[in-house]
UniProtKB/TrEMBL annotation, chain A:
Domain of life of the organism encoding this protein: Bacteria
Organism: Dissulfurispira thermophila
Pfam families, per the entry: HATPase_c_2
Record-annotated Histidine kinase/HSP90-like ATPase domain positions: 16-135
Entry protein name: Histidine kinase/HSP90-like ATPase domain-containing protein
Taxonomic lineage from the root: Bacteria, Pseudomonadati, Nitrospirota, Thermodesulfovibrionia, Thermodesulfovibrionales
TrEMBL record, chain B:
Coiled-coil ranges per UniProt: none
Pfam families: DRTGG
InterPro entries per the UniProt record, alphabetical: DRTGG, Ser_kin/Pase_Hpr-like_N_sf
Domain of life: Bacteria
Lineage: Bacteria, Pseudomonadati, Nitrospirota, Thermodesulfovibrionia, Thermodesulfovibrionales
Keywords: Membrane, Transmembrane, Transmembrane helix
The protein's name in its UniProt record: DRTGG domain-containing protein
Record field: transmembrane: 88-107
Residues covered by the DRTGG domain: 5-105
Signal peptide: none
Length: 141, 116
């Protein structure tokens, strides 16, 4: 099995926020991936997608399903994360109030991604952007 | 608990039926923070919320939430209702506040996603 896809994400586009993750979820469903794995991958992708919509100017979500794993890579042209360790803490958020009014910005995004991923890598350069790599194994071994 | 029984219990109106007839709710998540829903909600749960944004439906879809209950009689934008229809997620509204609704559902035998 080798399936891949890519979505363009626009910062501030709350109308379509979540559409990429929704499509990824439906693709994984069609591939016959188990429900539990689909749920973990979708939640991690959705949180990462929302981070780009909330914080960045634009970005991409690229996914690859092969070799028994789902790899989701999100790259953005955003402000970058100054202190990754701080950003990984539950409850820490730099989201503005209007984002909180939409139900986001609780500071649970990155912790939620980490919780659902088998492997998770984050690289960020302030003023350039952030890259997240989320890997979820489809096998238990 | 069947959705129509929940609607009866909390004086709710079903706006979008979704798969209502086949839904049997056993657990409930009450939150206006979508990351908390993604973190704690169980598959097939009922989400009780006062957040009337399309984000709620997106979150429900991703987290495999069976039905959404809007409290305080909040008015929902057409986009939110349309998305619920498209994603086949049941949508209810009640004039009651979340605290009262959750109390009634608890007494009715439903439990939190974390207790279930």
């Amino acid at each position: 099995m080798n399936v891949e896809g890519c979505f363009q994400l626009m910062g501030g586009d709350f109308t379509n926020a979540g559409a990429a993750s929704s499509e990824l979820k439906s693709t994984l469903s069609k591939l016959g991936v188990s429900q539990d794995i689909i749920r973990r991958a979708s939640i991690a992708a959705f949180e990462a997608e929302m981070n780009i919509i909330i914080h960045a100017v634009a970005g991409t979500m690229h996914y690859v399903v092969n070799n028994g794993e789902i790899r989701i890579i999100l790259t953005d042209m955003g402000p970058g994360i100054e202190d990754i360790e701080l950003a990984m803490q539950e409850g820490y958020s730099t989201a503005p109030d209007w984002v909180r009014e939409m139900g986001w910005g609780a500071g649970m995004g990155l912790p939620n991604i980490k919780k659902n991923a088998d492997r998770f890598k984050i690289d960020s350069v302030v003023g350039e952007g952030t890259t997240l790599e989320i890997v979820i194994y489809m096998r238990k071994d | 608990m069947k959705l129509k029984d929940i609607a009866g219990l909390i004086d709710g109106e079903i706006i979008v039926k979704g798969k209502a007839d086949s839904i049997d709710i056993v657990s409930v998540c009450s939150s206006d923070l979508m990351s908390d829903v993604l973190r704690f909600a169980a598959k097939g749960a009922l989400l009780v919320t006062a957040l009337n944004q399309t984000q709620v439906i997106r979150t429900a879809e991703i987290a495999d939430i069976a039905a959404v209950l809007m409290v305080l009689g909040k008015k929902m934008e057409k986009d939110m209702i349309e998305l619920a229809k498209e994603k086949n997620i049941a949508l209810m509204v009640t004039h009651l506040p979340a605290f009262t609704v959750c109390g009634m559902l608890y007494v009715g035998g439903l439990r939190s996603c974390l207790e279930e």
